[in-house]
Amino acid sequence: MKKELGIFILLLVLCGVTSIENHNFFHAANLINTAQLIGMFGVFSIGLGLVIITGGIDLSVGSMIALSGMLLVMALTEWHWPWPLAVLFVLAVPMALGWVHGFLITRFQLQPFIVTLCGLLIYRGMARYIAHDTTKGFGDSAGFEPLQRLANGSFLGLPMSFVILIIVAVIMWFVLHRSVYGRYLFAVGRNEEAARFSGINTRAVITSSYVLAGLLTGVSAILFAFFTNLVQPASHGNFYELYAIAAAVLGGCSLRGGKGSIVGILIGATLLQVLQNLVNLLGIDSSLNYAVMGTVVLVGVLADQIVKMSAAKRNRG
Amino acid sequence: MNETPLLEMRGISKRFPGVVALDSVSLQIGRGEVVALCGENGAGKSTLMKILGGVYQPDGGEILVDGRPARITDVNDAMKLGIAFIHQELNVLDNLDIAGNVFLGREPLNALGLINRKKIHADTGPFLKRLGLNMPTRTRLDRLSIAHQQMVEIAKALSLNARIIIMDEPTSSLTLTETNRLLELVCELSEQGVSIIYISHRLGELDQCADRVVVLRDGKNAGELPHGEASHDRLVGLMVGREIKSFYVQSHAQKTAAYLKVRHLSSSLHPGKTVSFDASRGEILGFAGLVGAGRSEMAKSLVGLDRSPAKEISLGGQVIAINTARDAIDQGIYLAPENRRTEGLVVDMSVRENITLPNLAAYARLGLIQVGRERQVAREQVVLLKVKTPGVETRVKNLSGGNQQKVVLGKWLAMSPKVMILDEPTRGIDVGAKAEIYRLMRELADNGAVILMISSDMEEILNVSDRVAVMHEGEITGVLDRADCNEQNVMQLAVGKKIPAAQPAFI
What we know:
The complex is a heterodimer of chains A (317) and B (507). Chain A has helices at residues 2-21, 28-53, 61-77, 83-107, 112-130, 145-152, 160-178, 180-190, 192-197, 202-228, 240-250, 262-281, 289-316; strands at residues 136-137, 154-155, 158-159, 230-231. In chain A, helix 8 packs across helix 10 (202-228). The relative contact order of chain A is 0.19. In chain A, strand 2 and strand 3 (158-159) form a beta hairpin. Chain A contains 13 helices and 4 strands. With 507 residues, chain B is of the alpha/beta class. Helix content of chain B is 32%, strand content 23%. Chain B contains 17 helices and 22 strands. In chain B, the strands form 5 sheets. A 6-stranded mixed β-sheet of chain B has the order 6-7-8-3-9-10, with helices on both faces. In chain B, strands 16-19-20-13-21-22 form a 6-stranded mixed β-sheet, with helices on both faces. A 4-stranded antiparallel β-sheet of chain B has the order 2-1-4-5, covered by helices on one side. In chain B, strand 4 (60-65) and strand 5 form a beta hairpin. In chain B, 48% of the residues are buried. Classes of the chains: A mainly alpha (317), B alpha/beta (507). The interface between A and B is medium-sized, with 22 and 28 residues.
């Protein structure tokens, strides 16, 4: 809990600074807009967080969002599938790809970084190829209004993507922090060999984390597609995996595996969106967007490490 | 002694927050002398050696080298004074060759500013010769056995003009023959004038090679014994400060019919070879053999962690199929593996989480873990096994080796084993904890479990086992009944010779 507290304070400070500098921060429209972004980015960040906890990584998330988004647009507007079928399809594709990642990683002992880096390249190429490298949008096609309302609407004044994030987070909190499966994820991330010696099917556990990450990526992909309303296959979702990795690391996940929490990932994902918002509201040149984000992540991780090192020194006496 | 000792540590004290690690401890060593240092874990051996190595600064006392006061503030100071360490975990880079390791960090350069390879190879040769290691200096370390890698470390120490070599548990991962060779080497080095401080839990070795045995207890000098007087009982007496009655617990069980029957068990180490044996309830069946005989691999394939396609296993007459580790666990066949910290435990997790890990489903309802029940079982095991820990939420990595091993046992004992396989159960564990682990094993056997114990510690094999199966290159060469268990018989079988005393492993 202590770990999350530090980053939470950083988040509050950033919100405070922004709101003092620009009163529009607490304006309802701004908050709703930010919440919507937090929702979309948060959902797949939780998925990637699970993978990171097992000691893995998934670099293909952004490309998967592009591919799934493109498939969704085409299924609804060109192939005229009923929307529930299209949704199932768009969730099943990233899950299947996640399973392939897990299979390659556990059966052939390939490094997750390499496998998912190849995924990043392949799925981006596939997204562009199936669309003939053209931008496709929902336009004024009809027949999937319920889905559109679900993705873009709001509930009790909260944007739907944010509501979905809360639901996903609550479920995943129980899964990660209270269930047998969650304990296995941590055990595998800390010491895969010892977990195997304790009778845990480590291959299945690791593979399932990629499948679960795929599912949550699929959910995010649907939300993003309706948020942008059109999918430009060459740029849609670019770099999104890095948002998720940054969020997870800020939230206390270790890339060595075995560490992390849902609350931490949530705060991390929120912090990144607040930062983007801050860049906009404070009139910082938007070309510095990534630079600001990188600096804050670096400072956050560095501060955490310094605190940890001084605590270790105190223990040693 | 008239001449000034090479090294003298006088009245060394060291306090850590809440503990006095060393309380006015003294240690002397003469030129070419071999001093064995022993004591239970926590007695202060490693703190004393870390002070000598400059890792810690003493709070009181002084260190004299050649009669002159010396200040050792870091490893370089120690090195300059001629003090070298051979740690239990070897500090070698296995992607470099022998010469590269010997000269690591102080490579001589040639005119181009690159490593002068000719020189390091030429300079390394004589040191290898001095150690009786006949191999090219271009051999990569990953092609050497642990024993030979250790020799390379000793060569490195010699190349640094070490006058005192400190060896911490040097034989813990060596085979019997390798151990004997190392002990010989210690004698040779001492004849060449190198002094040795030898730390070991294997009491049998100490009197073989040491001129004196110095015993520490609770951070104080507990006494010392000269060569020839350091018997097992007297050492243990000094170490624990009391008599340990019945260090080894004898069997109470009547010999019964075979309960566990294993046939055609193979492993990936010796693909063509198979092992078959019987074991009965209440019995401790020891597995002796040289390192590389395939004992650990046999254990792994018995519990489904290694491939063994043709194996047939039955428990109490019932044939069982074991294809995964989970199958073995479901049948009550458990393995406490050789490498506690990498295979036996998730050291970053708590005592509670480790104990419940193999049986987590039993603590869950609707997939959610009930931490209260976990805690209760973990506490029971901690009390039962007398694990010294602040609590069940303590991370296992903060416990001593003996207590870690008890947690490994606790995790399986909580699931009532039918067959318990222990691979090197007391490696690196101090005498007090050893006695407790032997007692637990015996209790478990008396309660009707089959115990298979793999051990490279000859004393342990001879004294703990009811029968000993000896393995050689993936096969059992013979089984010795208690009456025929002696070092000669075990060694004969371990090198693959047939002897008349040997019994078949099954009927």
